[in-house]
Amino acid sequence: EGNRLLEAFDELLHISREAHIPAELYHIKALGQKNWGKIDTLLARIEAARKEGLPIRANMYTYIAGGTGLDACLPPWTQDGGYPELLKRLRDPETRKKIAAEVKIDSDKWENLYLAAGSPDRIILADFTAEKLKPFSNKSLAEVAKMRGKDPIETIMDLLVENEKPIGATYFLMSEENVKKEIAQPWISFGSDEASQAPEGVFLKSTPHPRAYGTFARVLGKYGRDEKLVTLPEAIRRLSALPATNLGLDHRGFLKEGMFADVVVFDPATIADHATFENPAQYATGMKNVFVNGREVLKDGEHTGAKPGRALYGPGKVR
Predict the structure, then answer these.
(1) Whole-model pTM?
(2) What is the C-alpha to C-alpha distance for residues 56 and 50, in angstroms, rounded to an integer?
């Protein structure tokens, strides 16, 4: 996704061609401002491969920020041996100096999310385990570094040591222009890349990416109805039939006789996402009724208590 985006695609293409298998680019994007201009070349190469007859496709989420651990700012070797070894290295003054020096250098050898974000104010801290650190949730790395009177890179290492467990972070890495270019491609399906969470109880102790609550309504409302980047039927296809087909899900993704009755009823005029990076735990509006395996689980916007879901497996599962 970063500096070696095009080289990574060439490798994927080689594997698909030589092994005679489909290939899918997960979360297609160009990460970091210096790489944003590569998206046109990437899309053109994919189009060329598809015209050649190769089964290349992709999926995306419609946000300009991604979510992962704060430790993604550090070189991969720092986690050799597991997380306890990372903490040992971060407690060693000489090793810390080496780590800090590497973080400051742009390299093709690893995906440096600290530099890719462009600025510490584009890295938002999310989930802390240590109670004393929880007040820093939803603050930028720049804010926290200033509050502590430390350099941002030193702040990253200090926080990881003090928390003793991984810390979630949101990185603003992509451009809205590129998101729109990707939405225009009919072979890209839409997905959330996030777990489903209720805005209550234990779930409120974490800070998920807003895509957990808003992805699908965002496609239908913001990008479909409002910005007219994709028609309603096409958006629905790329939210259902296309990913189900790509994943080889049996009898899913279509409204046809004999298929499992997974049905969503929404109001095209009011469907909208409300989840934000500051307050992600907000349901979308305009969603009326949802049926899973033929049973109603959402009625007039309220959960019925029914739990008819089941695990889904693709053709690769050994039965």
Answers:
(1) 0.91
(2) 6
